[in-house]
Sequence to fold (173 residues):
Amino acid sequence: MSDYPKHYREEEAYFPYVDEVDQSTYDELLNAARSAISVFHIPQTDDGREIASAINKIVDDILATGEFPREYYDNDINNVAVELGALYGFALNMGYGWRWKKVGKSEDELVFSWGVGSDDDNWFTPCGVYLAKILTGKNINRYGENDNTVLLNYNMIPGTLKTTPARKLTILW
Fold:
C-alpha cells in the first residue's frame, strides 16, 4: 500500500503536496518513453546510465544542429522534451529506484504534474521541464552558456543522495 499522498509544512519542503502519478499518467509517460526509443533508435536496455548517456548524445546532436526527427508534430521542440524527459525519468527509475510523482501546493494546484523523486522525498526532478530547459537554451551554466547536463545530473545522483537538503522535494537539475 502506498504511503502517498503526503503533506509537508511549508518550512519542511519546497512543495507541501506530493503524490504518486495516477495509472493513466504513468501509461502516458510509458508511451512517450517508448516513442522516444523508437524515433531516436535507442537500443532497449534496463541500464539507466546507458539510457541517460543515449539521451545526452541525442540532446548534444539537437543542440549542435537544431534538427530533430520529423515525427515530432508541429516541429515543436517541447514535444521532443516531453518524450526524452519521460525516458529520462525511467532511466532514473531504473538506475536509482526513483518513483513517478507529482508535486505542488495541493492536488488541485500542481507545480509539476510529473517527474521522479527519491523515496525519501528529498530530491525531485521534473524531467520534461528539465529537458525543455536544455533544448530551448535555458539551462545556463556559470559562464552564461546553455549546458547539456543530462549525463552529469545522472552521474551525480549517488553523491547527492548522501546529502540532506535544507528542505524536502529539492529540485535536482
The mean pLDDT is 94. The radius of gyration is 16 Å. The CA atoms of residues 20 and 101 lie 4 Å apart. DSSP finds five helices and six strands in the chain.
